[in-house]
């Protein structure tokens, strides 16, 4: 991590304020115990107000001021949003949407990832920033651009079209190989030359799904290539670690972070509670587990979160007293060694003027400011946790490619979504008190006692075989509906569903039977099913539950199969999976869904996090010292409603 211990950080945009405010802010940051400050995230127009005119005086002063107050710098390259002069002089740098229209400046990220003009001008700035500050003693981390692909990941302009063709030629080599991969014999789509291929703009009918998936892959790779260009330049002039902030969250899906993660010196994520979801705190836990998976199980940093409300949801709910601290420590429990916020001082102008900050519009005589001070004190007290890793023996497989492909334009049911299955499985494990590693298809599964595969529509032969081998060797597997259906070309696996998993699950489905929204079917185990049914029969599996009514009455709904030395369950409908996962994970305890129990270990140390998201006290057996309160725990720990305990454990 860029700063020792469990650090507190924030974004700072000094260009919005006068030098007098800078000095006030630096003093308040020190008072608040801020360790790391991100600056120059949106600094391009200040550093280069007109083409070739560079002004570094303000940034020099801010960096020296923070350094004088003992604060480390997370230095942005300043390229996340270009200045108005760039698009004015070079309108070809603007991104083009799927409908073929250009998107104009006035917001942020108004640039095409494939634009060589943009890249040349941006890298010129990066080089100047790197040479000027690369050896500064306050510099702890380089921050490439900002939230790459948040708004401009998919561009359909001519430059993107040319880049897409080049990417396809590198991937397929021969046009006939591409035709086979895309199934272009359908609807007379066969290509005779690379020049005929376009980016998949909106069409009058359904578009080619294999082309859409490849365009998603290309777009992720194109932005990754841009990241590499900045990172390579920074590393040429500096030995300081380089990263960028991921967006592992429910409403962002355009980048395959499994391919990005190896390029990062530090894995960093931005996460904001999304109140459009049924349980935003459960999604927070999933996102933290997935970010830890991207970090290979090692500690990571929370680059951004909100102190209170955001400004971009339909209803921007603020956080109750204690909630910000509780959310922050949930990230720490699940592997974060740095907790940072957007932003330090709430903006007085601009699109984010109603976004919360560590220092609110009302100043320091506020509940929000006192919460910040309390969080800072807490992070200092639990600093010894840093460097330890989260303990888990259950894995959940997650794939951005499966997310893209399973939610194509033409599918059995528009009501069936990938994240719904993923969140449901992870949330159920969380309610059972099970900490889950989120890993990529193809990951080493040997150390896990249970692997859960929710809605993994697309999977390669190699990755499917790895799962089968895991079960054959004694592992336990739970697979949910709409899994294993296609290979990596989005080609149906013929012979019956669930395709790649038929043998290991011991079942074969002849056809899908999606349910209309609101419809329910009864199951023989007393549960109900929604959204999905299948005309399923067993080959080697035993039946756990059947559909009692509906179009598949009498048909298996949940099965269990002995395969080699292991066991595999299949769930062919949306239903409560508590009992299945309890059995599969061999869970004895019955934790409340409002309490999270997570353990971090390392170097002979063990720390138990007990996070009570509910209103009533909870008891948990443990022995040691609660770092949050400093109190000795002998036998039973009581955590009050809304409270958090972090116990340095001792053997009983």
Automatic annotation (TrEMBL):
Enzyme Commission number(s): 3.2.1.23
Family, similarity comment: Belongs to the glycosyl hydrolase 42 family.
Record's protein name: Beta-galactosidase
Keywords noted in UniProt: Glycosidase, Hydrolase
Domain Glycoside hydrolase family 42 N-terminal: 11-381
Cross-referenced CDD domains: A4_beta-galactosidase_middle_domain
Matching InterPro entries: Beta_galactosidase_C (IPR013739), Beta_galactosidase_Trimer (IPR013738), Class_I_gatase-like (IPR029062), GH (IPR017853), Glyco_hydro_42 (IPR003476), Glyco_hydro_42_N (IPR013529), Glyco_hydro_b (IPR013780)
Record-linked Gene3D superfamilies: 3.40.50.880, Glycosidases, Golgi alpha-mannosidase II
Domain named Beta-galactosidase trimerisation: residues: 393-576
Organism: Actinoplanes subglobosus
UniProt domain Beta-galactosidase C-terminal: residue ranges: 595-649
GO MF terms, alphabetically ordered: beta-galactosidase activity
Keyword Zinc: no
Catalytic reaction(s) noted: Hydrolysis of terminal non-reducing beta-D-galactose residues in beta-D-galactosides
Pfam family, one: Glyco_hydro_42
